Amino acid sequence: MKLTQVAAQLYTVREFCQTAPDLAATARKIRAAGYPAVQLSGLGPIPADEVARIMAGEGLTICATHEPSGIILDRPEQAIENLRVLGCTLTAYPYPQGIDFGDADSIKTLVRKLDAAGAKFRAAGLTLGYHNHEMEFLKFEGAPILEYIYARADPRNLVAELDTYWVHFGGGDCVDWCRKLAGRLPFIHLKDYVITKAHTPVFGEIGAGTLPFARIIAEAERSGCRWFIVEQDTCPRDPFDSLKISLDYLKANLVS
Fold first, then answer.
1. Per-residue b/e over 149-170, b at no fewer than 16 CB within 10 Å?
2. What's the pLDDT score for residue 58?
3. How far apart are CA 81 and CA 89, in angstroms?
4. What pLDDT was estimated at residue 63?
5. Which 3-state string (H, E, C) describes the chain?
6. pLDDT below 70 — which residues of the chain?
7. Cα–Cα distance list, 153 to 80, 149, 214 (Å)
8. Among 8, 57, 63, 115, who pairs with 153 as Cys (CB 3.0-4.6 Å)?
């Protein structure tokens, strides 16, 4: 993994991305921390062309986005246009909003819509991924729902944005999942899993928790991963400091 492949997920600092001036200040801090790229998520109602201008002005590549779940499924053309304005080719379905994973028809409809949307993205020269949480590790037809999603959607239409914390939280093995998704894993969320003194799991900076990132990153690279995106849903300190701690750890231990 090279430093040029590492990005910060702006969802980590979402509270500081709600207006254009705040986003500009955030972009400066992210670049000063050493990140060369960002994934867009959790931003306020800022026009895409202004977002693109802000990021370009700070020398940050927009490696990927999270487009709203409903728009991806029901109005993919809107998401496609947003990506075009941003100059970005990679996005992910962020969360199964309104999907009942206890209902077979709901699961099958989700996969059908993802595949259809992904075909439209592909026709436009773009790539649609699926970002998992823990609920996709519920069983359906004898296997985790995440396996069903990837088995039933055309690999040309739907790739994976694996999230290391949520894979582990759901009972999966991150290294094994990177291997399963060979050729279908252009981006990954690096997010550590920390056990507190109260015996509860929390999000942590890379290197602070239990996940074997050297093995995860090596397997992701073998599977063709291009972007390694640092994210921390909640932070025990200033989220900008958390992002820098994670990047410093990666630079010292895992960046070639």
1. bbeebeeebbbbbbbbbbbbbb
2. 97
3. 11
4. 98
5. CCHHHEEEEHHHHHHHCCCHHHHHHHHHHHHHHCCCEEEECCCCCCCHHHHHHHHHHCCCEEEEEECCHHHHHHCHHHHHHHHHHHCCCEEEECCCCCCCCCCHHHHHHHHHHHHHHHHHHHHCCCEEEEECCCHHHCEECCEEHHHHHHHHCCCCCCEEEEEHHHHHHCCCCHHHHHHHCCCCCCEEEECEEEECCCCCEEEECCCCCCCCHHHHHHHHHHCCCCEEEECCCCCCCCHHHHHHHHHHHHHHHCCC
6. none
7. 19, 6, 30
8. 115
Continuous segment of H or E residues that includes residue 40: strand 37-40
The amino acid occupying position 83 is L
Residue closest to 62 by CA, chosen among 29, 44, 35: 35
Give the separation between CA 233 and CA 37, rounded to whole angstroms.
Answer: 18
pLDDT of residue 55: 98
- What is the pLDDT at residue 23? 98
Domain extents for the chain? 3-253
Fold for the domain defined by 3-253: TIM Barrel (3.20.20)
Predicted pLDDT of residue 6: 99
* Angle between the N-to-C axes of helices 48-57 and 76-86, in degrees from 0 to 180, rounded to the nearest 10: 30
Residue 223 has a pLDDT of 98
